[in-house]
Each structure stands twice: as C-alpha cells, then as structure tokens.
Amino acid sequence: MNTMIPHLWSKRKTALTAIVLAASIPLLAEEKGWTPLKDATRDGKPLEDLTINGRTYEVFQHGVKPEWGYQAPQQDTFVLVHPKQDRKNAPLYVVLHSAGHDVIECVKCTRDVGNHDIYRSPDDFYALYLDCRRNHNDWWWGGMHLNNANLTKKNSGGDPMPVERRVMDTVKWVIQQYGIDANRVYLTGISMGGSGTLGIGMRNGDVFAAIKASIPAGIEHVSNRMYFPPQELPAAARIPDPPIVIDESAQNDDWSSGHERFVKAMNDRRYALFLNWGPFGHAHNHLLIETSNDLVNSFDWLNVRKNEAYPVFSHATSNDNLPWPDDLKSTAAGQVNAFFRWKCLSDTNDRLAMSLFLASPAGLQTTFKIPGESTADVSLRRIQNGPLTPGASFHWTYGTSTGEGKADATGLITIPGLKITSEPTTLSVSKSRPRFAN
Asked: Are 375 and 285 found together in one domain?
C-alpha cells in the first residue's frame, strides 16, 4: 500500500525534455499559477508507449495549488487518453485507480479484457486517469481506512482533503482545455478508487452526471463527506443535487461492510442509488462479476446528462432484502432500484413531465425475475427550470391519479407511493407563479 512511483520531477537536460517543455508553453500561457505540463518521462527516461487500441494519449506532470491545503510541495501525474476518432464536445470518463496500481499501471490494465474492466472507457470518450500513489498518504479518501481508526478520525468530517481538491481542479482543467461536453462527465473507480468515486463524486453533482463505484473499499469516505448519520447535515451546507450513483458490491467482501447504513442514508436523503450485489468478492473482472449478478452493467449510466432532471426511487417494494449486516454468507444476488427507467419529457418554468416505467423482459435479458409492478416514493432532482422554493405547493398527476404536495425544506419535490409498471406512465408536476425559485 505504501509503494510509490519514483520521483518524476528531477532536473533533466536531455533534448527530449526541452522539446516537451517547449510544447507546453501554450498551455502555460493559458493558465496562470497552475498549469499541467506535458512530460512523458519517469526518472528522466521516456515512459513506455501507452497507446492502446489505436488511441492517442498525453502524460502530464504538475505541482500543487496553495488552496488545496497540502503541507508540502509535491508533483503529480495524470494521463489523458483521446477518443479513437477526433470529435468535438466529447464526453469525459474519469478514473480513480485501486490501491494496488499507480496511474501508469492503471492505463496499462485497459489492454486486457478481464483486468480491472472498469478502467476501460468507451472509444468515443476522452478518458482521464489520475494518480494517488506517488506521494505518501495521498489516497483518494484522504487516508481514511476501514481498519485504521486513527486515519479515519484524522480525515473525517465534511471538509474535502487536499487530494479531493486536486482531483476536482484537474477534472475542471481538462473540461476547459479540451472542450469536453460539460453535461456528460462521469466518474468511476474500483476498490480504493471506488471509495474515492463515492466520496468525491457525490459532493460534486454540479460536475459529474453519474458515477459508478466498483467494489468500493468502504463507505466511510462518502458517509463523512455527505454528513450521513451519525453526523448531521449542517444548516449552512450547500451540496448540489448528487450524480446518479451506481454501486456494485459483494456481501462476501469485507470492504463492503456498512452498506446497510449507506443504503438507508441514500433512501432517507432521497438520493438516486442503483445497487447490485452478489458473492463475487473483491473481484475486478466484469465477466466474473456478471456470473454472480447479471444486472451490474444493465443501467446505461454513461448516457445520463447533467442538464436533465431525474427521478429518485426510494423505499421501492421491488428491492431485495439486503445481505448486510446479518446475511453475509448468502450466495444470492440482489438489487436496489435496478429495474427503474425514465425519460424526461418536459422541464419548463411551469411544468415538469417525466415518463416512468420498469425495464421489460424483452429489453433486459437477466436471470432475475423482473417485477410486473413496483411501488416507490418518487423525488425529482436536477430540475433545470424553476425549481420550487422550500415549502411551496405543487400539483401532480400520474396516469389517472392526482394530488397536491409541498416541497420540503430544501425545495425537493416528492410524491409518495407511485405504482410503476412496464407501461410508461407520465408523472406531471405543475405549480403556479411565484412558487418557483429564481
């Protein structure tokens, strides 16, 4: 766990370095104070070719911003892989590696199917690979660890650690420099990177459209950053609507301990969660994971858009019983919210309309029995035009059902007990001026 990449920022006087630095001058002019520089070397020697599947890439080195809060200067590396074919306004796939890899090893894993498959981005995306192995105790979770109470205490609470600030500023720099589609930025990671995906991603719903955590190594990070119980959400906290969360965890993986608390907090806060589990342990091969639970890749999370409202399904009757904390020896697979689908139809200052339905057996090939109906509370997040003010009234229709409601203290709209079937049914929410927030 403490192995680090050798120091990459030693002085070099080779012709290669001069060429690389010269190529970086335009970037330096564009970003004052903090600018990643193209530098594909290690200990003064060129890195091996990382071209995979014909995709070009760039390796960057950079220092730190004072506002990140690092106690000492350090250098970091990230790799940006380009779409296989040049395209404008491409989406971005952001990867946080496991504790067993560094950023270069992470990229190399994408050569082989079955080797940490979550690292592999679609060919038409940019892919950003960040690193947290080069500097001591710079883990994605800020050093938090399920089995180390001192580290957990040191890095607890809602304030992001320096590494979390570094990740977000790097993502934003790439979005700006490469003309990324800002509504299609996605975060993923495995093991330690899965913990980082939850803890960093959920706090930054204004950047990430959706996130996917594969066998996340603990829920402590996200529980602290999101002020989940036993913490209390501060009255002054302003957390954007989180991205949609996909979590694949195994009941026979010790790192998944506490998932019952995570699921309860997500339900109680009415945050969007798609959870799949099975006895696949701390596995990194998606083909192997799918033999335990064939729903893990069934939700099209890479087409979620940040500029579209989405529904949150809470306390659904179609959810399976969790194996945590008392049934960890179970060999059964299970899911929370895996069958729900939707389509946003309208989002104006006066009306929000959304089609809700369950996946059909014809469209979802699975060994699970797909329910014919499910009853769930439905909340509406990321409303783009005219979200309600806290306590404001609204009128809703759902098929032949109608009702009235009031937004909660945060302005969140929730309609309890909707019966959802495979037949798409439109949920329409309307309200009269001046009930919308400006």
From this structure: no
Max mean pLDDT range (5-19, 126-140, 145-159, 308-322): 308-322
Residues of the domain holding 303: 15-307
Please state the pTM of the whole predicted model. 0.90
List the Cα angle 111/115/116 in 5-degree steps.
110
Q: Quote the Cα angle for 94-358-246, to 5°.
A: 20
23: which 2 tokens? 């190529």
Letter for the amino acid at 285?
A: N
The token pair at 44 is 């003064």
Helix/strand/coil for 192: helix
Measured between its terminal Cα atoms, the distance across the chain in Å is 49
| Rounded distance between C-alpha atoms, residue 121 and residue 301, angstroms | 13
- Best CA proximity match to 286, nearest among 85, 276, 50: 276
Pair 260, 382 in one domain:
no
Residue 120, classed as helix, strand or coil, is coil
Is residue 295 included in any domain, yes or no? yes
**Residue 1 CB coordination number (10 Å):** 8
DSSP 215: S
22 Cβ neighbours under 8 A, 6+ residues apart: none
* 373 contacts 354 by C-beta, under 8 angstroms: no
Segment 42-97, tens digit of pLDDT: 778 899 999 999 999 999 999 999 999 999 999 999 999 999 999 999 999 999 99
